[in-house]
Amino acid sequence: MRDKRFRWNYETRVLAGALLATAPALLALAVALGFALDDHARAAAIWGVVALVTIGLVFVLRRNVVYPLYTLSNLLEALREGDYSLRGSRARRGDAIGEVVLEINALSQTLREQRLAFEEKSALLAKVVAALDIAVLAFDAEGRLRLANPAAQHLLDATSAELAEQTVQSLDLDDCLAIADVRMLERSFAGGSGRWEVRHARFRENGRPHDLLVITDLSRALREEERLAWQRLLRVLGHELNNSLAPIRSMAGTLTKVIACEPLPSDWRDDVQGGLRVIGDRAEALARFMSRYTQLARLPPPNPREIEFGAIARRAALLEQRVAIAIDAGTTLHLHLDSDQIEQALINVTQNAADAALAGGGSVTLRWRVADDALIVEVIDDGPGLPPSENLFVPFFTTKPGGSGIGLVLARQIIEAHGGTLTLENRRDVRGCIARLRLPV
After folding, report:
1. Would you place residue 222 in the very low, low, confident or very high pLDDT band (cuts 50, 70, 90)?
2. Rounded CA gap, 56 and 67, in Å?
3. Organism's domain of life (predicted)?
């Protein structure tokens, strides 16, 4: 057994210390009274009165020492319980206890402001999570559901009361919690099915690990983007088809009227031949249009092999005969690319720049450099600049007479298949446009 030594409490120790401090004075007073007075009874009475007064003052001292500590204890207890409204009074600077009380008051005010800010942010976060159309779920260390926003309730087709204390197993979300970071899933939930982006993260609360699931419905966004893409494509296809079918329909009606005439006019053969020629030309134009569409839709995946980029760039520039393309050669680069596709992309971009330059000063520059582990290729012209349109990369959209509308689209499709990007922007210093191709090195 451990020896439990007796220890006085703090108040008793203060009282005993004060009594010990006054004991020498009382002893000296007793000796002095014994020598000064022959009447020992009177001397004892005087000493007793002094001793009682001293003991009373000691108890007063004990109370004055202990009472502020009880006040501090009450203030600290209020802080521990989360009550930050309690304040110590009659505290002043330059006083030891007063300094402590003032610091506790300042601490209480700081904690009150921090709790208010935390509650406001928590309320805002709760409203944001509730307003999200993305399912957010949180599970504790035992796999029990602790948080589910309205989107999660809709996804699981259950109310908050029905989801209370549900587990990962009962909700059939084991495969989602097995995801390390982010993954696309094709699966069904109680509230719907389709393609989902599932994000899994870990966090700690009260020192224990918790799991956070964020499930985003991709089907709706993909369907909307697909619908918009089809709208843009059909708008351009309809425009091209109408351009071909309208004259064919008109000419067919004219020829029907010519043949229906009795008797036939003397030049009916010339009219029929001319009409059939128009119909043939428009049919051929429509066939070329469908051929271009097939070329765009059936672009094969790239077949990369080691090439010297400068040779491809110079060859693409030489193929443009209308405008002399200036070469601003960078360093010699050996890259793994599909040379045929990259050359076709450069031809399309330089041809587009040449078309623009013919309307301006007739100057085109092709340059390249390496920056941030990427090959930057720029085709610069001094043409009129980009037209005010958002359809530059929409298939078959063109602002040039006789243009096909697939050159830039095909070039961007090739560059993106190689993991790069193609952007267009107006020059800032002078008139013209910059086509910038970015390919990973």
Report:
1. low
2. 16
3. Bacteria
Q: Any idea what the Cα angle at residue 191 is, between residues 188 and 192, rounded to 5°?
A: 45
Name, in order, each residue with C-beta under 8 angstroms of 53's C-beta and a sequence gap of 6 or more: none
Let me know: does 219 contact 188? Beta carbons within 8 Å. Answer: no
| Residue pair 359/409 in contact by the 8 Å Cβ criterion | no
For residue 1, name the pLDDT band (cuts at 50, 70, 90).
very low
* Average pLDDT value for the chain: 81
**Spatial contact of 196 and 218, defined as CB atoms under 8 Å apart:** yes
**51-90 exposure pattern, b = at least 16 Cβ within 10 A, e = fewer:** eeebeeebeebbeebeebeebeeebeebbeeeebeeebee
Q: Which among 192, 182, 204 has a CA at the least distance from the CA of 155?
A: 192
CA–CA dist 174, 5 (Å, integer): 58
Q: What is the C-alpha to C-alpha distance for residues 384 and 352, in angstroms, rounded to an integer?
A: 12
Quick one: CA dihedral 412, 415, 419, 425, positive or negative?
A: negative
The whole-number average pLDDT for the span 271-286 is 77
* Cα 135 off chain centre by: 16
d(CA 438, CA 335): 13
CA-based angle 165:170:174, to the nearest 5? 110
What confidence score (pLDDT) does residue 225 get? 67
Cβ contact 213:175 at 8 Å: no
Would the pLDDT of 286 be above 80? no
Query: Is residue 264 over pLDDT 70?
Result: yes
